[in-house]
Design goal:
The chain is about 65% helix and about 0% strand. The protein is an all-alpha fold and about 180 residues long. Helix 7 packs parallel to helix 9. Bound molecules: zinc ion. Zinc ion binds next to loops.
Length: about 180
Amino acid sequence: MLDKAIDMPELFKALEFAAFKHKNQRRKGPENLPYINHPIQVASMLISVGEEYNTNLLIAAILHDTIEDTDTTEEEIQQIFGEKVAELVMEVTDDKNLFWEARKQLQIETAPFASYEAKLLKIADKVCNVRDLVINSPEKWTLERKLEYLDWACDVVAGIRGTNEALENIFDEWIAKARKFYNT
Ligand code: ZN
């Protein structure tokens, strides 16, 4: 089981770093979970469903929202976790200078050209977010916004299929559950 060669000290360093950076943030659902639960779930999804054991990928999963949602900079990640991890995190970071619609549209357009690792990360991230819309659904989001999110996640994943079958299958399963849940 443990011959998968994940660099545990580096992974725990990333967990500690991200937990600290997200310390004042909460997920949007009714349970008000600490934000760090989300990146942990994404990394866990990559390991347990995707069977992906690449340390840089898992570290990037743990760090994937730090630049977008905290004061963390690309340089900081580069210095602490190296060039490859920083590049990966940047690949899944939206440009906050753009409006929400433009950012979401850009993700649809650029996802097919992302690196293999960034594609894996994008799929796992969407699986966790779609699952959250079912099991920990944000109370402040209107039904319309939730349905828009589902359509958008489907559009992004449609452009990167053929990356990891198990992750794509579980994405489809959660989309189906969400559509049933929201009766659409
Ligand atoms: Zn995320």
